[in-house]
Design goal:
Layout: H1 5-26, H2 30-52, H3 58-75, H4 77-92, H5 99-112, H6 115-127, H7 131-151, H8 158-171, H9 173-176, H10 182-203, H11 217-230
Helix pairs in contact: 1-7, 1-8, 2-7, 2-10, 3-10, 3-11, 4-5, 5-7, 5-8, 5-10, 6-7, 6-8, 10-11
Length: about 230
C-alpha cells in the first residue's frame, strides 16, 4: 500500500465537503446559517466532552493545560494565529469579520486532535494501511460541509493543517510509534477534548477563549505521562 494515502484522502474529503458546504450556505438565509452554526457549536462541545472523558488521569489533563496555557500566553500564540488568519482572510475571503480565522482554527483543531488522527496516521506510515484514516475522512468531510455552510471558506484551509499534522505523523511514524502508547494517546485526546469544548463555547457565543494559547498542552501531556512512567 502507498503510505500517506490516508492523509491525501482526508484532505480531499475536507475540500469536497467544505466546497459543498459553501454552496449550501450561500443559498440559505442568514438566520438559518446562524442556527446551523449554533448547532455545530453544541455538537463540537459534545465531541470535546467525549474526547476529554478518555483521559485516565484528570490531573495530567489539568497540569498539561495549566502549564501549556502559561507557555502559550507568554508566547501569545493566539495573536500569531489571528494574524495569519486575518492575512488569509484578506486574500481569500470577502468577509472581514474574523469568521475566517475562527473557522480555520476550530476545524483545524477538530480534525487533528484525537485518537483516529494519531493512530490512523501512525498505522498509515508504518504499514500503508489507511482504513482508519478513510473512516475519519468521511466523518471530517461531513463536518467540513456543515461548518463551511455556517462559517465560510476558512474551513477549507484546515486541509493545510491536516496535511501538516497527519502528514508529519505519517512521515515520522517509525520514530513516534514507540512513544505513542495507549496512555499517551489517552491523555493527548483528553487534553485536546477540553480545547475542543473551548472552541465550541466560542462558536455558540457563550465565551470566547484563547484556545490557540492552550496548544502547548498537547506537547506537555505526553511528557508528563512519560515522566510518570519513569517513577
Amino acid at each position: 500500500m502507498i503510505k500517506g494515502l490516508g492523509t491525501l484522502m482526508n484532505i480531499v474529503t475536507v475540500l469536497i465537503g467544505g466546497s459543498a458546504g459553501l454552496l449550501l450556505g450561500s443559498r440559505l438565509p442568514e438566520k438559518i446559517n446562524q442556527a446551523v452554526l449554533s448547532v455545530m457549536g453544541l455538537v463540537t462541545m459534545v465531541v470535546g466532552i467525549q474526547m476529554a472523558l478518555q483521559t485516565k488521569n484528570i490531573l495530567i489533563v489539568i497540569f498539561s493545560l495549566v502549564i501549556g496555557t502559561v507557555i502559550g500566553e507568554l508566547i501569545n500564540i493566539e495573536s500569531y494565529v489571528n494574524r495569519v488568519g486575518k492575512a488569509m482572510e484578506r486574500k481569500f475571503s470577502k468577509s472581514k469579520d474574523g469568521r475566517f480565522a475562527r473557522a480555520f482554527v476550530a476545524t483545524s483543531l477538530l480534525f487533528c486532535v484525537g485518537p483516529m488522527t494519531i493512530l490512523g496516521s501512525i498505522q498509515d506510515g508504518l504499514t500503508g494501511n489507511y482504513n482508519l484514516l478513510a473512516t475519519k475522512s468521511m466523518l471530517d468531510g461531513f463536518a467540513a460541509m456543515m461548518f463551511a455552510a455556517a462559517m465560510g471558506v476558512g474551513v477549507l484551509f484546515s486541509a493545510l493543517t491536516v496535511l501538516v499534522i497527519q502528514g508529519g505523523l505519517t512521515l515520522f511514524a517509525g520514530t513516534l510509534s514507540g512513544l505513542m502508547t495507549g496512555p499517551v494517546i489517552a491523555e493527548i485526546t483528553g487534553t485536546g477534548g477540553v480545547m475542543v469544548v473551548s472552541i465550541g463555547l466560542g462558536i455558540v457565543g457563550i465565551k470566547k477563549l484563547n484556545t490557540a494559547n492552550m496548544l502547548p498542552a498537547l506537547a506537555i501531556a505526553p511528557i508528563i505521562v512519560l515522566i510518570l512512567n519513569q517513577l
